[in-house]
Every structure is written in C-alpha cells, then in structure tokens.
C-alpha cells in the first residue's frame, strides 16, 4: 500500500509518499480501508519536532507514518472481533499510521459513523469536535457574556464559535483575512476582527467592551493582546495550543494582579480515555442533531500531505483539512 512517512523531523518536505507492506489486523483489531485521514495540530508538531516540548507526548519511532484519526470502511478483522463489522463505516483514533491507504485500529476504538454524517464530517467531529466540546466545558460560557475566539475559522475555532453562541454568549471571532472573517460570521459570530491588523484589540474593546472568556490556541503577541481584554476579577481563558509556535506572553503575576483564571486543555483526553469518549459522544450527538456543523476545508490527495502541512502551518486553510488516499 501507499503511505506517507518521514525519516527525520523537519519541515513539510520530510513527508514522503512511499510503498510499504499492507498491515494485518491482530487480535482485537480491525483493518480499515481509509477514505479520509485528518490532519491535526499534533501531527504537524510531531513532524516538526515541536511536540518535544510536551513531556506527556512520546517522540515518534522513525521512520514514522503520521495520522491520528481516520475514517473508512472495515476491510478485515482480527481474532476475537465480530466478522459482521466488515463493510461498516467507522471513524477512529490511532497512535499514528493514518496517512495511508490501510490502517489498523483497535476494534474498540472504531466507532460506527452515524448515517446522518459523511466520512469527512465524522472525521472533523471525532478530533476537533471532541476538543471543542472539552474546551467549551472547561471555559463554561454563560448567556450574556462576551467570548473571544482566536483562530476562529479553524476546525476547532469554528466549532467553538457555534458552541459559545449556543450558550447565549456574544461571540467575537478573531481570524486572518476577509474569507475567514466571512466564514466566522456565517457560523454565528457577532463581531469578526482580523488579528493581523494593528489595533484589532482596541476595536474589540470599542465594540463590545471587556471580554469574559477567551479561547486561545494561538500564543505569542496575539494572545498577549487578547489577555489584555479580559475583564478584571472575572475574566478567564482556556489555552489549548500555540499555533504561533510561541507560548502566550503572559505570566502568573499578570493573572494574580488582575484576578484572572487560566486553564489548559489537552492532555486529559489522552490520559483519561473515558473523559475523551464522553466529549466525543457529545460532539457526535450535537452533529447528528444539526446543532454543531463541522467545517470541512481543504480536501487533498494523500500524495499532497506535505502541501497540506505547509498550508496548515501558514494558517492558509479553514476548517478540517482532509487527506484522501
């Protein structure tokens, strides 16, 4: 089969399309013919080596095939797995190996795709929907509050806009460029601002006043400006990434002086599988009901994995980026 591998960490160019042996499902496993492989922030960080900053995430064995989430059809099953699963549409997570024509998943991790969702939508809800639900629960937006979502046109950001609006908040979406701003408005944002423009934070303050809740996957100077908008004494933030490759430029002294609350989100879904499963189930429930609409952005052939990573790093995409074998 064909698969994407990297033999060393580095830029997107280290991703190569190679011919590798077909995998075989072992006991308790299923073989999935992949119809869609998702690209996530974690995979980009792993390829670049940036994931080494997270002690809870192990370094990949080289050569390595990235891809932590796939959707497709069960092609074969291993021992102790119900043979009737063959032909079932599933979506699931794996510890790498998704950028390929075939992937092996634990049978328990292969979740049936609801009829109401296509494979690309299911893939978006599986990972990014889980994150969005978890980030929202952590921040707990309330009716009447002002919620600022950074990177609001991304796969998680677009879902956060919808969830915050569903909670009754006034939603401020911050993104880059007119196309992305227009998308956030379509998703329900009350105000959309370009955070690459000088004075964007002052515009937010002039339009909506202080911010009660910040959802931040960006870091760096953008995060610093966003933290400055948080209301003294009641402001809170959920940090769940650093897409700028820089941590938020704020310190515990800043939190103390202004009485802010800051929470991180991420590792718990890995160390507590039951927690992740509950969030995922809620994301799928909302998706099936139509209350949460995942945005599927770029859909590229498997051979374009390097180009997809480059687009992701340059923040040139919206919604979920999907590779199709």
UniProtKB/TrEMBL annotation:
PROSITE patterns: QOR_ZETA_CRYSTAL
Domain Enoyl reductase (ER) intervals: 10-323
Keywords from the UniProt entry: NADP, Oxidoreductase
InterPro entries tied to this protein: ADH-like_C, ADH-like_N, ER, GroES-like_sf, NAD(P)-bd_dom_sf, Quin_OxRdtase/zeta-crystal_CS
SUPFAM superfamilies attached to this UniProt entry: GroES-like, NAD(P)-binding Rossmann-fold domains
Pfam families: ADH_N, ADH_zinc_N
Entry protein name: NADPH2:quinone reductase
Species this chain originates from: Actinokineospora diospyrosa
